[in-house]
Amino acid sequence: MTDTVSETGTGYGRPRPSHDARLTEVGPGTPMGEVLRRYWQPIASSSALTSDVPHRTRILGEDLIVFRDGQGRAGVVFERCAHRGSSLYYGRVEDDGIRCCYHGWKFDVQGHCLEQACEVGGGLRREVARQPWYPVEERYGLVFVYMGPPERKPELPRWDCLEELEEDESYHATWPIPGAEVVGPVSDFNWLQAYENAVDPVHAAWLHSAHSGFQFDGVGTIGFPESFFDHRTIAERVSYHRTDYGVKYVQKYQADAPEGEEGAELEWHVEVQVPNIIALPDYVQTTPDTRHDLLIWVVPVDDTHQRAFFALRSADPGRFMRFALGITQNGKQQFELTEEEAQRFPGDVEAQRSQGDITLHSEETLAPSDRGVVMLRRMLRTMMDDVEAGRDPQGVHPVDGEIRRVESRIITTSKTAAKDDADAAAARA
Ligand code: FES
Ligand SMILES: [Fe+2]
Asked: Is the pLDDT confidence value at 423 over 90?
């Protein structure tokens, strides 16, 4: 770049823009792809995986089939048949496996070839055929898959916020979106754009309030006070912290109170656990000093698409719908907007999708309020270095005991009458 360009700031003669491939690309053998493959990833909703037709999905750039055989075992195998490549999407699920439509080869959930229908004796050498497969486990209403090196397979994690189920509680992990119930809804931009949004509290003080009008349903009613979103004070109210499993931000705010009374001092804690989990408290009906109950996974489909999965522990089915529909734009859901409404009332989709299929890191100008994003990227880079050096990346194994601590919650920090009552009740219990 010449001095003239940098001085004038015009667009002329700028170097070709580029994305950070190391941070964003996820295919087999890529640095981030290898990191993501070291963790169990959600691939389907357990309760929605009931039909006897196979489901097609793509995760980390690999085309996969998810099915549940007649014995109730979930299976994940490559989509292309090991014989001559027909798609098992057109296969038939049977009691002990899935059978390809083309020549009737049947594979079990570990890819063993059980039968080659058109060969003598069902295939005398059928054991040499193996459909590529991945290990699967089910927990919290989700089917998890492990796509990494078999000898490095960790235990499927447990999180304190999802255990133990209390009376009347159950797990919710199925999107109420037609066509997305089993394998989740897809967004058409890079996974890291969606993930970084979770450590960017500042955007809520601009995009979701000052710019587009309050977009969180609970504002001014049972949820946040308007002052939560004050963009003039947000920088001083937010701090960023490393945790055992990732990064969290803490946002201070004050509850609304009747004339002449002092509202309680509160803190909103949101943690992300690397490589791709978000622990988001209820942002519609905010309830201080309760146990956290929700994890969200941003699962890369390929370099330019991602799927969202979630697991919620709740006795309140309304909590689930509030979460799913909790951000409105001009009183509507994002998919209901006209083009002009999307321009006048943009939300997360407009902001993140318009960063590009993969954002152009060479064109960014980071500022102090991007601290969470910077901490997250630094952590992910260290994890890639660790994997390349033969070490386990952060959080593959639990830090302390079996159950992972999740630090998301809303905490009352001031002494108020309500807090005193709650403390006294807790002490009696
Ligand atoms: S291609 Fe699948 S059985 Fe022949
Ligand atoms: Fe947002």
From this structure: no
